[in-house]
Amino acid sequence: MSDFARYSRQVVLREVGVNGQQLLRDSTVLVIGLGGLGSIAAAYLAGAGIGRLLLCDRDGDRVELSNLQRQLLYRQADVGRAKLDAAVAQIHALNAGVEVEARAGEAGLTAVREADIVLDCTDNFPARYAINAACVAAKKPLVSGAAIRFEGQLALFDLRHGGPCYRCLYADEGEAAETCEEAGILGPVVGTVGSLQALLAMKWLLGLRDDAGRLLSWDARHWHWRTHLMRADPECPVCGVKTLGRST
Predict the structure, then answer these.
(1) pLDDT in tens, 126-139
(2) Is pLDDT larger for residue 182 or for residue 165?
(3) Confidence (pLDDT) at 247
(4) Are 156 and 212 spatial neighbours (Cβ–Cβ below 8 Å)?
């Protein structure tokens, strides 16, 4: 491996090794949403040597000064710059060996079929529902993360193992998600969830796939983690038996 020195600290792990590092290099990961979650997740994935990163964010979204408290991929000089352009430049500066492609708006949903695994780093239910539906249709695993105030949530959805999809867990489309602007967020909280999204994706790519079907919730204020087992909803309008005709 020509770049062994760069990745030596993870290659030495028996769960990774040279073969595992090659798996990461041969992988394509799609990160949708380049805010507090996605900017951290994308940086860790690039640092780990993921061969191809597809980065997607809202068309026209720009780096704002208030982003810098938690979106550590960006610099003060990036304020006012298109977030996708800034993210691609920063990832390339971090690891020029990673192929980075920008996808704006709805193009992110089309890119689901190109990815080995998808990270949903968005902050609203309509986007999360759309990403989940695209992943179900393309049979792609989905790592979902969310953070607000001192609270975080994390889950891996992989229907190929018979588990639930995101829509099984959050079925009420009428409920609006709180935003960080409204409720506040402590930077390290969203950073922790974003880094764990990258970790879940890497574990899945390396064949350590025992994480699907569990929802992790974190109360950072009291340093408390809870694990909730999730079940597929046979009535789910996206992945249920009546929708896809899959067995339970």
Answers:
(1) 999 999 999 999 99
(2) 165
(3) 45
(4) yes
CB 10 within 8 A of CB 21: yes
Tokens standing for 192? 């922790």
Asked if the model's pLDDT at residue 197 lies above 70, the reply is: yes
H or E stretch covering 46: helix 36-48
- Asked if residues 30 and 108 have their Cβ atoms less than 8 Å apart, the reply is yes
Q: Which two tokens stand for residue 197?
A: 């999204």
Instruction: Compute the CA torsion angle 113, 163, 57, 201 (nearest 10 deg).
Output: -90
Structure token pair of residue 36: 């507090």
Walk across the sheet containing 52-57 and list its strands. Answer: 99-104, 52-57, 28-32, 117-120, 142-148, 151-157, 214-219, 224-229
Residue partners of 235: CB distance under 8 A and separation at least 6: 242
End-to-end CA distance of the chain: 43
CA distance 150 to 166: 22
Nearest one of 164, 68, 178 to 123, comparing CA atoms: 178
Whether 244 has a pLDDT exceeding 70, the answer reads no
The partner residues of 100 in beta bridges, in order of sequence, read: 53
Q: For residues 229 and 224, give the distance between their C-alpha atoms in angstroms, rounded to a whole number.
A: 17
| pLDDT tops 70 at residue 111 | yes
The residues annotated with a catalytic role in the active site are: 180
The burial class, CB within 10 Å (0-12 / 13-18 / 19+), for 41 is buried
Question: Would you say residue 243 has pLDDT above 60?
Answer: no
Bridge partner residues of 154 (DSSP)? 145, 216
